[in-house]
Amino acid sequence: IYFLIKKVEQNFGHNHKIILDFKLQLAKLFGKEDIQKSVQILNEIIPKQEKAFGLLSDNVFDSKNSLALRYRDIKNILSSSKLFIDLENIASQKYGAQHVITLRMARQLATNYKLEGNYLKAEKIYKRMLKVYEKKFDSMAPILREPLMELSIIYKKMKNNIKSKKMADRVYAILKHQRN
Fold first, then answer.
1. Furthest C-alpha separation in the chain
2. Is the alpha carbon torsion for 62, 67, 68, 72 positive or negative?
3. CA 50 to each of CA 20, 24, 61, 132, 151: distance values in angstroms, whole numbers, following the listed order
4. Do 147 and 126 touch, CB atoms closer than 8 A?
5. Is the separation of the CB atoms in 177 and 158 below 8 Å?
6. 8 and 22 Cβ atoms separated by less than 8 Å
7. Taking phi first (over 0 means left), then psi (-120 to 50 degrees means alpha), and beta for anything else, what does residue 31 get?
8. Which of 10, 33, 71, 122 is geometrically suited to a Cys-Cys bond with 114, CB 3.0 to 4.6 A?
């Protein structure tokens, strides 16, 4: 891949869209094997992608999402959360506040809050997800399991066993319904 990147750079320049895409793929290849290298590449290409593709482009979104996940991997939760807040705002602008992609970014942010022990902020996000999913889907839809399970875990950590059990019971009911 390095050879390919060098060859394309010679012909098209360092900031060509093909180069930026190659580097994104390279950062993804490094993934968890060399997180620091992946973070370095992503931090290098994101400003260039924003210039080449625009702030709301799928390319920038994908790169920022990868970077936020890598930051979480290296326990830089603050930087990860800032990116997930940005990504949630971008998704909300592009797709709407109740779109699945927007809610996925909110879920990632909630995961960070959970890791920090900020259960109230995480709870607020998971409750919002659950409310949207309950409006969009059947009460036994599998997609409801995730926010219900996460709320159950959060309530358990907050020592609210009654709410935790209530959420866990709903997850169990959905699983049982699926098996029938």
1. 64
2. positive
3. 11, 13, 10, 31, 36
4. yes
5. no
6. yes
7. left
8. 122
Q: What is the CA radius of gyration of the chain?
A: 19
CA distance 165 to 156: 8
Please check whether residue 67 is in contact with residue 39, taking contact to mean a CB–CB distance below 8 angstroms.
yes
Where do runs of H (alpha helix) occur along 31-76? 35-53, 58-73
What are 116-174's pLDDT values in tens digits? 999 999 999 999 999 999 999 999 999 999 999 999 999 999 999 999 999 999 999 99
Distance (Å, whole) CA 11 – CA 82: 36
Query: From CA 120, how far away is CA 54, in angstroms rounded?
Result: 34
Q: What is the mean pLDDT of the chain?
A: 89
Residue 175: pLDDT over 70: yes
